[in-house]
Design brief:
Elements (H helix, E strand, L loop, with lengths): L1 H26 L8 H18 L6 H16 L5 H5 L3 E8 L2 E6 L2 E4 L7 H12 L12 E5 L5 E5 L9 E5 L8 H6 L5 H12 L4 E5 L5 H9 L8 E5 L11 E5 L13 H8 L6 E4 L6 H10 L6 E5 L3 H14 L6 H11 L2 E7 L5 E9 L9 E6 L1 H12 L1
Parallel strand pairs: 7-11, 7-12, 8-9, 8-10, 10-11
Antiparallel strand pairs: 1-2, 1-6, 2-3, 4-5, 5-6, 12-13, 13-14
Helix pairs in contact: 1-2, 1-3, 2-3, 9-10, 10-12
């Protein structure tokens, strides 16, 4: 019964939205130029008139909700609007009109909202892309974009997405966790914080490693705060997320190809250019392609204290991933030479993990202590007690 009523409500929303679009055109109101208060009054009045004229039995609270959601459709991002406004939501995942999930405190859960149908999802995707001049159609069925607040958006549509259009949003927050917040939340101990602070201030080359959603950007953002104020920093990101309170910083961002397939500026191009800008440190938001070659060489040639992040589930996996990135991006050298380049470039790897309950933490900090025979020799500087407890439990099993 609830499903049928919900379907009726979704169809009512569709009808009311179409009616409001017609009324806006009749009145000559341009949504982009009108004030929100004016639009809010217009929507409330016209929704009330429509419900009365159609003799739709609707409680006052339901009519207010209908007006609010219709306003979101006209000036915002529809069902996504309340999720974007909710500070507790970190990620929004739309798997289809009836399947929206959110991540709250590291745990995925189904959201109590939905789209009307696939066309509704497509309309919101186009609303996101319209001011960006980005293209999404059958010939170009996937796109990365960024909302005005900095949130990252990925959209993919049929025929690539078999079950209908899909949206993934990683929200951008202006309120970053402080060192004290991370200690209080149990993400790291005070001992670990002091260790990391010393590593940054002593200009050690550092790599933050972890799986998806482990908080790599959060930790990189935190560590960057400890860079001395008299140093010049150049940051390179696919989507600008780092917020460094630093007096001498240049921020660079990659650019995708345009509709004609030209104009792309990759992270590798920006790292090469950054080295010509006399930086003391280079910070790359994430290494995922050929930029690793230039970053390692920068770390080896006078840019000590540089940092980046990488997707990997352990410190050793991070080194293997770097090897793979070097190989697939044309770094022509033998296994021994590659090992020596990595071992001599990186000083410290900070490994992150996410526990089953969603809590993120620094699982270990290791120093690279390469030898002639083993360029990947490591020394553990810090290890989280939670991991030791897991290892003991595993041994008992």
């Amino acid at each position: 019964m609830a499903t049928r009523i919900d379907e009726e409500y979704q169809q009512l929303k569709k009808q009311v939205h179409s009616h409001l679009i017609e009324r806006l055109e009749e009145e000559g109101i341009e949504v982009e130029l009108a004030e929100k208060a004016q639009l809010e009054h217009f929507v409330q009045a016209n929704v009330g008139q429509y419900v009365a004229s159609q003799r739709i039995p609707l409680a006052t609270s339901d009519q207010s909700m209908l007006a609010r959601e219709t306003l979101d459709e006209i000036v915002g991002f529809g069902p996504l609007e309340p999720l974007l406004d909710d500070p507790q939501v970190n990620d929004i995942l739309v798997n289809g009109p009836n399947s929206i999930f959110v991540e709250v405190a590291g745990v995925l859960q189904k959201a109590q909202t939905r789209f009307i149908d696939d066309d509704h999802v497509m309309r919101i995707i186009r609303r996101v892309l319209a001011p960006l001049g980005r293209r999404l159609d059958e010939s170009s069925p996937m796109v990365d974009a960024r909302l005005p607040d900095g949130s990252r958006v990925n959209a993919i549509i049929p025929p690539i997405a078999l079950d209908g259009p899909s949206i993934s949003i990683r929200k951008f927050t202006q309120k970053h966790l402080t060192a004290s917040d991370l200690v209080n939340l149990g993400s790291m101990t005070r001992e670990c914080l002091e260790l990391l602070t010393g590593i940054v201030q002593n200009r050690r080359n550092l790599l933050v490693s972890g799986g998806t959603g482990t908080g790599k950007t959060t930790i990189l953002n935190l560590l960057s705060q400890f860079i001395p104020k008299d140093e010049r920093i150049v940051t390179i990101e696919d989507s600008a997320e780092l917020q460094l309170n630093h007096p001498h910083i240049v921020r660079l961002e990659t650019r995708p190809a345009n509709a004609e397939g030209t104009g792309k500026v990759a992270a590798r191009d920006l790292v090469v250019n950054a080295l010509r800008m006399r930086p003391d440190r280079v910070i790359v938001g994430e290494v995922r392609s050929g930029e690793i070659i230039e970053l390692l060489q920068a770390m080896n040639t006078g840019h000590e204290g540089s940092m980046s992040t990488i997707h990997a589930n352990s410190s050793k996996d991070a080194l293997i991933r770097i090897e793979t990135l070097l190989a697939v991006n044309g770094y022509d050298a033998g296994e021994r030479a590659i090992g020596r380049l990595i071992g001599s470039s990186l000083d410290v790897i900070v490994q992150l993990a996410r526990l089953p309950n969603g809590r993120r933490l620094v699982s270990e900090v290791v120093a690279m202590t390469p030898t002639r025979d083993d360029p990947y020799q490591m020394e553990t500087l810090y290890r989280a007690k939670e991991l030791d407890a897991q290892d003991m439990a595993g041994a008992q099993l």
